[in-house]
Specification:
Blueprint lengths: L2 H10 L14 H11 L3 H17 L4 H25 L1 H7 L5 H4 L4 H20 L3 H19 L8 H16 L10 H19 L3 H6 L5 H27 L7 H19 L7 H19 L9
Length: 304
């Protein structure tokens, strides 16, 4: 067919319908997804689910468990948004296009407002579980904010993680009648897991952080040292969780410890730089810990 006739024929065809999938996303929807992506959704969801599992394990009623989960979610959202906002300058310098603030999917002012709003909501939600319980949780959230604002670049960068994770079981159990403190082994296991998660989480970005002047403890001891220390901390967390409760260690406890050791070895076998394996292994161990906590719920409130 000659070109002129083909063009004429094409003009008689109906224009293709523009479907909803082909249409560009609406600004409000794009903004919402950008805001959600800035809150570090995976760690925030993981910690919130851990709090929910603890609340179920110790026998918190539905209203108390709901308030506990809402408080932890608000705290985690505030910490995640604060982290991305504080790191904006460094992320721009290193070209982190995976960050919504760098890509322009969300405005810095919106993230700042979201972080402060979540933090304000966290206060009454935390205190709704009791004054002592609320203070425990707010101390953990304050430690996480201190990490974002200052301690990330110091030799005690691990401390906010250990403190925030270690206080999470206390927030859950202190909301029970009589406000019982959690057993020592549960607090120790949570604190060790939090410190281990810090070392594992830093590894993929350690070179970029060093180039931007970030010098937390993992940066000071190097990628190999951080991978080793993080693995040992996670293993120690599993040991406290398995051997801490009174009585004989059940078979599933030994199974958890063996799985943790295997995950640590898997992470050590991979190059620590630019690898998410150590962090993912830590998250897998945390998931196994949650299962064990739910199974042994009767041991979680009170001395052990």
């Amino acid at each position: 067919m000659p070109r002129a006739r083909a063009e004429a024929a094409d003009e008689t065809l109906p224009a293709p319908a523009v479907t909803a999938a082909a249409a560009p996303p609406r600004p409000a929807v794009s903004h919402l997804f950008g805001l959600l992506g800035s809150c570090h959704p995976v760690p925030a969801a993981a910690v919130t689910l851990l709090a929910a599992a603890l609340a179920a394990a110790v026998g918190r009623g539905l209203p108390g468990a709901a308030v506990t989960v809402a408080a932890v979610a608000a705290g985690q959202l505030s910490v995640g948004w604060c982290n991305d906002r504080v790191d904006l300058r460094r992320d721009l310098a290193t070209g982190r296009r995976d960050k919504p603030l760098v890509s322009g999917a969300v405005r810095p002012a919106a993230v700042t407002a979201a972080a402060l709003t979540a933090l304000l909501l966290c206060v009454p939600l935390s205190l709704a579980g009791g004054r002592l319980a609320g203070c425990a949780h707010l101390c953990g959230v304050a430690a996480a904010w201190a990490y974002n604002l200052r301690l990330k670049s110091t030799a005690v960068s691990w401390l906010p993680y250990a403190l925030a994770f270690g206080l999470l079981p206390a927030f859950v159990t202190l909301g029970l009648p009589g406000a019982p403190w959690p057993p020592w082994w549960l607090t120790a296991a949570a604190a060790l897991l939090g410190a281990g998660a810090h070392f594992a989480n830093v590894l993929p970005d350690i070179d970029d952080d060093l180039a931007q002047g970030v010098s937390g403890l993992p940066h000071r001891i190097g990628a190999r040292g951080s991978a080793a220390v993080g693995g040992l901390l996670v293993l120690a967390s599993a040991a406290a969780l398995v051997a801490g409760p009174p009585g004989r260690v059940p078979p599933y406890g030994w199974g958890l410890f063996a799985a943790t050791a295997a995950a640590v070895l898997l992470g050590a076998a991979r190059s620590p730089r630019r690898s998410r394996i150590p962090f993912l292994a830590t998250m897998a161990v945390a998931g196994a810990d949650v299962v064990l906590l739910v199974v042994r719920g009767a041991d979680l409130a009170g001395p052990g």
